[in-house]
Design brief:
- With about 800 residues, the protein is an alpha/beta fold.
- Among the domains are: about 110 residues; about 140 residues, P-loop containing nucleotide triphosphate hydrolases (Rossmann fold); about 160 residues, Ribonuclease Inhibitor (Leucine-rich repeat, LRR (right-handed beta-alpha superhelix), Alpha-Beta Horseshoe).
- It is about 35% helix and about 15% strand.
- It is built from 23 helices and 24 strands.
- Strands 9-10-11-13-15-17-18-19-20-21-22-23-24 form a 13-stranded parallel beta sheet, with helices on both faces. The chain has a 5-stranded parallel beta sheet with strand order 2-3-4-1-5, sandwiched between helices. A 3-stranded antiparallel beta sheet has the order 6-8-7.
- Helix 1 packs antiparallel against helix 2 and helix 13 runs parallel beside helix 15.
- The radius of gyration is 28 Å and the shape is globular.
- The C terminus is likely disordered.
Length: about 800
Amino acid sequence: MNFNCTDRWMRADAKLKSLIPTIQQLYLSELDLPKDQQSPIFYQLFNALIRGAELLKKCENISPFNPYLRYRYALQILRLEQEIQGFMDLMPAHILLDSRKLKQELQDYYQELQPADMSSMLKESIFKQASLLTSDPASPDSMLLQQMCLDDSCENEGFNHSVHGIIPEKSQFYVGLEKPIRDLNMLLFQKEVSVVGLHCIGGGGKTTLALALCNDDDIKGYFQNVVFVTVSQSSNVKGLIETMWDKIIGVKRPEFQNVEDARMQLQQQLLCQSKSTLVILDGVCSRSILGKLLFEGRGYKTLITTRDISIIPQNSCTRLYQLPLLGQRDAQSLFCFWGFGQTSIPTNADASLVNEVQTGCKGLPLALKVIGSSLNGEPRAAWETAKKKLCQGEPISDYHKDGLLRCLETSISFLDDVARECFLDLGAFPEDKRICADALLHIWVYVRKLEWQEAFTILWELASRNLFNLTSNSRSAAAISYENASELYFSQHDVMRDLAIYLASQDHIINRKRLFMPRKEQTLPGKWELLNERPFDAQIVSIHTGPMHESEWFEMNFQETQALVILFAASEFHLPPFIKSMKKLKFLMVCNHSSKRATIEGLEVLSSLPHLRSVRLERLVAPNLQKQSNALHNLEKLSLSLCEGFGSASTFDYPKLHDFNMDHCSDLEELPPNICYMPSAHMWSITNCHQVHKLPYDLGNLSSLRVLRLSALPDLKELPPSIGNLGELEYLDISVCEALKELPEEIGQLKKLTELDMRECSRLKRLPISGCGLISLKHVICDKEIKTQWLWAKKISIPELRIEIVEAQFRSDWIDD
């Protein structure tokens, strides 16, 4: 901490501690009064000051090299200052002056913790640059989050940071791939070879090499079709075969009865065609799964990536390629890219120390990337600590449990306690899956008790350290600004998930704060059943199974559970009856990973959850959810993605909802009228529901709405006039509403509207005259056909308006299944 910051901290700490005894005396004196005359004000203020003293103690040792922690503590200082402000009107006159002085010291300290460059990065760059991410996490050109540390003009024995923002051209930096690509090409081009196994330990770069191979010119010249399929530990085999059919055969697939039927029909099609095809099966870990995904055909070849060499078939048509770890030169280039933002050791760094840390990564690409990112911008002491820990670690063995995990544990040792707990929560979600970031953020908000903005800062910090990947579509930034990350997605490397599960599983299974199933199983683990009569301490529970009927669940006692993640792959699924024991449950996610929507039963257990605040349902048929609305009267956030069963909903009563998202609900035509009775809603999103042709007349009853997203509703013909009653609306998205011909005159009443996205509204040719009344409008995204009218409005009455013209583009979020 610099001198000024330390000085301000000491003054704020002194003021705070001088107030505590006085407030404590007043609080104790209140206890002498009759109960009906006691006021809770001094007790509440006393607790706030105690929390403030603890916070300032934590702030004392903030590193200037950790901008995320400084920003998070700044937010907490600001909340403390605002809390004290709330008490000031009720304070006796003799302590009011001291309180005002404390409030001013906290304000000064907040400003010191969050200088102008910090605010610029974490308030503007985080929100705005999120839109630079692509929507395809599997793409080798995906813009993954990068080093986001600041140059605070601080130096520490030669280690100062000079990388700003996101590295511009490519977030990935590939080294050491030229020879492996040539070697694989030689194997794949051999006429007698039909299967090539690519093997190395976890984190060795198999997926990176396979993705690079997809873009290799020689491969694209030799094969007419190159298909990349991710196969994880928890894969739905029938769904994988359906994906292969879609990408290889290219015609509408039939309804497969089961895995064997799907396999037989795809094999028949492959024998009838002669298109040269390379299928890459990435991350295969089971011989039985692999056996169901291998096919024959003229010109058909398969590349398998795996960490388990024993699953590769041994015959005359198969070749095995062992991917070597990186040599010294390539390892140094990769490490320096993530550690310094350049491909060599900076002149002002201690080359010997850098080389020792890099050598400790054993040439393993994942370790070089993650550990390099974790040390980006850190002082010399952090590098010395990393060197010591890496030197004490075991050599990386064939399997990563003892070697690689201990190596990678170094990468999270620089996280503070809160961020480390957040990292461990990642084990609740499967590897190599695209998961909505809102799900993770809601766990941190409701279980970790973080404010949303602080939780989002941690999300960004973990991504910047490459502990997981973040991707987004181009329109997420506006929603993120309003505390919604429904269009931001994360995915994690299987080894990083293994690390999270390994670290979260150190206690006895009964006492763990997190109870995770590492991979999909047909039923719950047998060890759980052996202990099912004892209460579990788990705050977060993650279950991953196949189809489950009511009779297949056994009773379990989860009295402490606050977050439950249920993942499955089936056409029918019954929620576990033991959910009713989760009286503290606040967050529930039910996600079906099969290719078709699943009928969900057992929703009535939700009626026994008085504290449930956030529900996320994906790829389900859940027609009875609306019947639970009376029981879910405290629900604040509801997200429905790829769900059916709401098209015939006659009631939809959730009066306390703040955030409502409905995406790709294919049978939805009209919204029930009372869906607009959400007086607390500030975020309302109906997107990619292709049959919606009409909105409720009473849309204007959503009086607290700040964000309204009505995107990709191609049959929507008009906006109701009552939209003019949305006096708090700041962001409106009507993009890709192709049937929309005009905007109602009442839209001019939206005096707080600052951003309007109306791209790809091809029939919308005219603006209403009232559009000139949108005096707060700062940004419009539109097609070039309507640009002239917005230029006229800018000239007449909206001088600060920025008009952004975009071209029509195909987006994957139109794809339903």
